[in-house]
What does this fold into?
Amino acid sequence: MALSDFIAQLDVLEAEATRAFGAVADAAALEAARVEYVGAKAGKLKEAQQGLGKVDKADKPAAGKKFNEAKTAIEAALAAAQERLAVGAETSAQAAFDITRPGRPLRLGKLHPITQTIERMKEIMGRLGFTAVEGPEIEDNWHNFEALNIPLSHPARDPLDNFYLATAAASGELNEATGPDGKPLLLRSQTSTVQIRVMEKTPPPVRIVSLGRVYRPDTADATHYPMFHQIEGLLVDRGVTMAELKSTLRMFCQAYFGGDDDVHIRFRTSFFPFTEPSVEVDMNWPKKAGGTGGWMEMGGAGMVDPNVLRAVGYDPEQVTGFAFGLGVERICMRQHKVRDIRDLYTNDVRFLAQF
Ligand code: DAH
It folds into this structure.
């Protein structure tokens, strides 16, 4: 076939199809025209395409180009008619919907690793009979220091080590914020405050844990952050001993880290104003249980100081108790092999999505 014939034939087809699509008045007519001109099996465009095989080899590029132009024009006329009759939306949406494609996975939200750690700790301590309670993050002098037997002269009260709060006057002047007792308010520096709050309200026996945020003006580095979390435990009853403290901590660590392998607890003598005697708690997390093998520092503990029991109206001749306070971040970081505490608080979803 001569190239000129092929071109002429397509010109006619294009004109005819454009006119036909321009004239259709309803969806049925449009569909009929669609089948007639661009039907995949026996449409006229398909038919014209056969001519492409019959032109001289040298004319093929020009013929192909012409064919594509005519095809684009005819399809545009079809699309215009579809749009005009508002039937296109459905047809093209159907055409674009490929039922064989795999679905797009939904991104599921997750709890923050610290929240997961806290929930797990609560659950384990719950099984050991400890009720989880909460206390305020803004604390007064009494609960953060005095009742915990931390004397006025104690360095723990230093303004450089605590976030004391201020109120702003209308003039913009800052004044120390004070509680009902006229003493300064601060962001709690330890969860031991909750021991006092619980004992003040509840007669013995008590058996609680409290997990929450504490604040200290530390410069952020790999192991420090101005806000972090502690788990505080308190048990007060008749005849409570240090052996029970050690077994409770061992059972807690065993449940948290141990699996089938034994986790060991070690006490080192220490000092805290609110316990006597006081110890530093280390845990040995065996290598075969996925641990690091060495001793790892968990936090502080001890037998509740009689002065603390007296401060809340308990009689130290009648009851004794133990208390402990462990760092939540440290445990979470060891568990997941996170090296820098700041990673937990940068809120990078790529990091957080791993847990
Ligand atoms: N409150 C202590 C701290 O923040 C930790 C602590 C030590 C809590 C001994 C206790 C305890 O309950 O008995 O460093």
